[in-house]
Amino acid sequence: MKKLGSLRRLGITFGALALLLGAASLVPVGLLSFHEHPEPPRAAGHRPIAPVTEGVQVRQEFQALDERIAEVQLELATYARENAGTIELRVEAQEAGGWRRLGKRTARKSKIVNDAWRSFVFSPALAVRKGQPVALILTADNGLENAITWYMAPDFRPPGTRLLLNGVEQAGTASFRVGYQVKAGRAGGPMWPRLTIFLGPLGQGMLVFGLLLALFALVHLLLWPTRNGTQE
Amino acid sequence: MFLVYCAALGIRLVWAALVPPWAAPDEMQHFTYVTYIVEQGAIPSGGPYAKKYPVNQVEESVSCAHTFCTRISGLWHGKPPEWDHFPVQHDYAPAREYQGAKQARLSEAGGAATGYPPLYYLFCSLFYGAFYSSPVLTRLMAVRAATAIVSSLACCFGYLLGYEISRKRSWGLALGLGMALAPMHAFIGACVNNDAALFASSTALCWLSVRVIRAEAVSLRHTLALGLASALVLLSKPTGLPIVMFAFAALLWKSPPFAFMPLRRIAAGIRNLGAFAATLVLAEGAWFLVRRMNSASGTSDSSAEADALAAIASGAKYSFGSYLASRYAEGAPYFRWLFLKSGWGLFGWQEIPLSERVYDAILAVLVMGFAGLVLRVIGERNARGLASALAVVVLLQLSFLFVVADYLMAYRHSGRSFGLQGRYFLPVLAPFLFLVLSGWSRLFRDRGFAVWIVPCGILGLQVVSLHRLLTGYYSLRFG
Description:
The complex is a heterodimer. Chain A has helices at residues 6-25, 191-195, 201-223, 225-228, and strands spanning 28-35, 47-52, 58-63, 68-77, 86-95, 98-108, 116-127, 133-140, 148-153, 162-165, 168-170, 173-174, 176-186. By secondary structure, chain A is an alpha+beta fold. The longest helix of chain A has 23 residues, at 201-223. Chain A is elongated, with a radius of gyration of 25 Å. Chain B has a two-stranded antiparallel ribbon with strand order 1-2. The two termini of chain B are 36 Å apart. Chains A and B meet through strand 1, strand 7, strand 13, helix 2 and helix 3 of A and helix 1, helix 5, helix 7, helix 8 and strand 3 of B.
């Protein structure tokens, strides 16, 4: 094969780099935002709702603040021990007088960290309408010796929320956060302003220059390996 | 080698820009050191202090509050982090534009980094000075860029090490790129930390030591280079001492001044050892003099090394046996955390771990590599010498950290571990990675493609790590 000149090789590398960046900029990207309002302040008499065992159902209803639920976080506790079994979180939305299941996630109890937020990711995001009533339903298997619990604030109840334990309404609100995918688009869109929240012109320059430099080197090595050493 | 440097520098600049401000281990203390050099025109001393200024400057603390580093990290309050990611609906302009007055930039320089030699910090101070009138985050980025420039050199020396041993450019490239792409090496080498200088100087010293081992005869030029690299290691961070000991042993082995040898060889041996020692003494002596001058002017009467030596010399409350028993009692989870998690994928203040399956995959790759290495050592007599030498330098670093840093300096008095982290083993990443590459190559009977398996795996790890960084701190979702 006829040998290519250095300039032509560089040109091909830059062309491949441009194609790669063009393709990468088309990747769909979403941005997750947690609305803080359902999360009760710690000062509001923060305590466990009840041991969640087989047959116990904890249901927290709220009104959706945006249109795409991408993640739900619950503040759970394990009674400072390792429990056996699984928990299940169901997400339902109220439609035409009834409740429709949107999604379900399970987790092993042994993987739950005591007194910490546990994340349940929904990908693709669950489609809801702004203001639509949504319910988070937590159930578990096994008995009291393997129970986990969900934290709540008894003196905190934002409008549109309702906490039920086995169908009986409770005072207060469970500790939960809902993550909405607030912006979605191609990588060139929501990604850049998000990645540069702390970056001035120097940081932004470093990011662009670094990305181009690394990709150039890797693409060049990939395209012309024999020039660069895979053949001795 | 130029392309290896480009790839390493590019990746480190990306990490430098993406890791949130003050989120890297000890970044505030190292930045305080750099600030002190520029703002107060001196090298910080180890105390005692007049307590005129705070330990870390006010500007840094205010910036820390602006950038939410105490809420995004659990380390500051010993609990899980308050937030999973930075809020989306928030105006970050005040954080970006904040700049303290001169008074807010002054410190007592009593942070954890104060006792370290000044070489790395002096280099970074040039970049800090170039952006003196800019916001503090811009100055932080400038110092991170300086760190990236230094740490990327390690990958070039990795290339040279790979080439030196194998005499094949593909091995040099594979080793250099493997180091360039290794996410923890990139992360630590992109944030403000003198480990970056240690990575570069220690890898250079490993390469020069291998050159000395392979040389027919050790020339004066070899010796001076070895001495200079050793001095750079010690002037970067004293934890590189085992690699200097390895270099000294290599020199002694190749050029021994023993009495039963011909006079000419004895003279050459004495000359080489003398040149090595003289280079070390000259470089270390300069730093020692600065320390003494600081002490004479009343700003310092101690140093980190002196404190460490005093700690080692003092009586033991806990025996080495009880230390070993305590490590054994920690069991497999401790060693998995130390060697896999914190060595390959804990970014920021330990809040961005990868999934357990990723660590399992890393473990599988390493185990397979070492299985191949055993096959090579058993089957190929020629490979034994250098493989042993590389294994020795890795084991020396390992032993030093466990015995000196963890036991002698901490456990012996307090009964508590120093808190070793995987990043402390990264100065010997080049020889370690070469052994793994060599093992994998042997598994595929040294076919040309085999040497690229591990770098391709590390490239995958780099992509997964960057993805984790973006989905974690920045709450981006792809696809």
